[in-house]
Fold this protein.
Amino acid sequence: MNDVNHALAMRIQELLKEKNMTRYQLSMNSGVSHSTLKNIIHETVKDNLLSTVILIASGFGMTVSEFLDSPLFLEENLQI
């Protein structure tokens, strides 16, 4: 089981690979600072804001629903 922060970090890394993007490119596309993305991926941020997730999804060219449409975010896979 993963917590939400770990699932978020894993999803970002998964999409970076899938879309052949760097964190810098995602930062430029989303408007989320590179340091914030780094902190999310390294799980030093413990309370991620939905607004940040929406910006990240947008940076990948996705809706937030598409971003969250992953087994990583299924309730049975999350420790809440």
